[in-house]
Amino acid sequence: MATKNIEIVVSPKPAHFVGDGFRVHNFIPGAHPLTMKRMDPFLILDYNAKFHFKGSEVPRGVGVHPHRGFETVTIAYQGKVEHHDSSGGGGIIGEGDVQWMTAARGILHKEYHEKEWSKEGGIFQMVQLWVNLPAKDKMSKPKYQTIKNTEIQKVDLGENGFVEVIAGEYKGIKGSASTFSPVNLMNAKLKSGGKAEFNFPANFNTAALVVEGSILVNGGEKVPTNHFVLFRNEGESFTIEATEDSVILILSGEPLNEPIVPHGPFVMNTQEEIMQAFEDFNTGKFGYLED
Length: 291
Prior knowledge:
- The protein is mainly β.
- Helices cover 8% and strands 51% of the residues.
- The strands form 6 sheets. It has a 7-stranded antiparallel beta sheet with strand order 1-22-19-24-17-14-13, with no helix packed on it.
- The longest helix has 12 residues, at 271-282.
- It is globular.
């Protein structure tokens, strides 16, 4: 099996706030060459690297906002988030949990630091990923998948560590999340010196984010904490070796190869569909959610 080599290692851009509760480094689509087209079906990857929030009686976060045409995936590494949407979904995303929300034809959403966690404050660390929907599924019914850490399938690598399979498949173990197109999403939690091998089709857009620690890729290039690795669309197999205890988010997906027309919180296939999304939002067709 041919090796999948690194195309580029991307350093984190300066952080900015989304609302007042999420201090993020934007990798997709903000960092060259990580455009939406290049990373298809991954539209956005915002990474809230470790940041200490002081305690607050009023939870920080993002107020009511709409989405249409894609899915949002929130992965909690440290801290807790509380969320609600206009379809009646909601809950608390605790450490190690994943929230997989399919906005599809339209939803209103809000997310804040969980109330009790907010009072104490502490280290906050999260990833939010937007996954595009195929054109045929963009106007499907919204849905929500709550994936507690205890429900995430884990592949034991012995003294090397383990891999949490959120979506897709690793060593014959299938992830907990259902997806509309082939998407692999997993956390490799490796001990110092631990190794793991990954195999994805050559045409899948494949990347890795070093959430903790530092790694060697294919026995060569060292990648430090908070850096993003983009792999070439050649070869299928690559290895990761942790040079210290490390957590690495692995993502790989089959490109949809459909037109991508983004505008703010909407991602559709044509400008006309974007205009319709705004009209539907303004006329209340996304439902109601109290701010």
